[in-house]
Description:
By secondary structure, the protein is α/β, with parallel strands linked by helices.
Amino acid sequence: MREKIASIIDHTLLKPEATKEQFDALIKEAAELGTYSVCVSPSALPVEVPEGLHVATVCGFPSGAVKPEIKAAEAARAVKDGAEEVDMVINVALAVEGKFDELEAEIKAVRDAIPGKVLKVIIESAALSDAAIVGACKASQAAGADFVKTSTGFHPAGGASVHAVKLMADTVGGKLGVKASGGIRTAADAKAMVDAGATRLGLSASRAILEEL
């Protein structure tokens, strides 16, 4: 179980005050733990990682409240700087208002900016109704995303929940991955998310969780 969980972790450091020294330590720790990737702020790129460790970053983070073309440009620059995966934050208001055509167009703008790279769409599920979660997942799928993701971990409404992960997994039906992120701090939390349908985990407490396992 430990190896299975480790292999789907994006070992994450997105605190705005994080330093180069801390990012270097994150990469070293990820290599030791055998995680799938490190997820770092776009300003930290490029980073040097050992072979087999992937590099992820974020765009429109953490509010999502910027224009689609800005998100697309940020994502493209991140890929130029070595990111293999981009976790974009949606304009959450579009999901709240049910403007799913506009949401799909926004996601597609980022998708088109990073062809061949993995795109994860952060829908901020704790801030959405079930209907809005479903609509956001369907818009992500229609726009060509690879994953839907619960949370930034920075929203006051909260992070991942088993209910949201299950709803997201049921909605995408295995056609997209599901990333659970935000507030996952114990091995029991991590296992519950996987059991609910998560295929990737965004964790900052990776070492503590893997040591529990």
